[in-house]
Amino acid sequence: MGIWSDQVVPRMTDLVLGTPAVRRLREEVLAGLHGDVVEVGFGSGPNAALYPPGVRRVRALEPSAVATRRAAKRIAAAPVPIELVGLDAQRLPLESASMDTAISTFTLCTIPDVERALGELVRVLKPGGTFCFLEHGRSPVDAVARWQRRLDPFQQRLAAGCHLDRPIDRLIEGAGLRIATMRHDELPGPRVLRPLGYLYLGTATKPVA
Length: 209
Ligand SMILES: C[S@@+](CC[C@H](N)C(=O)[O-])C[C@H]1O[C@@H](n2cnc3c(N)ncnc32)[C@H](O)[C@@H]1O
Prior knowledge:
The chain has 6 helices and 7 strands; from the N terminus they run H-H-E-E-H-E-E-H-E-H-H-E-E.
């Protein structure tokens, strides 16, 4: 980790993913949360103000010290209690089958072993529990997907390990979750940015048996 990923990327992330248009997408996805919640990749807390009233408590994980320092004020002002319980989504310090819902926004792109992190989310969710997601990933448009593949090595260096072309729906289903609702959108911005912003928004449930 260098100055770029430690200091610059968290601030850059806040700018790019802190627009009113992205906030509306966050509100849409967070509306599915209730009860005891785990959020992975909490960042500087852009979701903190948006937790709906049915949420009892949030356990959050975030490895970036800069981001968590920036999150402190948002955590203090949040409408529900939020506790930072760890760093790494690949190893959740939570009991199995203890969470009602889970959330990840713009984080499955960056976690190094994303299959393992999704496996951990499945482990800590109660049977019938819901995973809410707002992620960017592989476009179904071949020409865009080709650009995503080409640009991926640069994006990884520019954005601290972020991948452009992860197949988010396949990864979620591969972990054993069933996608209940899903729609796609694009990050608002010029057409040339399309490889950066093919969005997956939805909910997936952990099967009961
Ligand atoms: C693009 S940022 C998104 C931040 C925030 N979730 C949002 O919606 O704006 C990706 C986040 O994933 C975090 N991250 C990277 N590796 C992680 C890991 N192994 N476990 C949990 N979070 C991780 C990064 O530190 C960063 O805060």
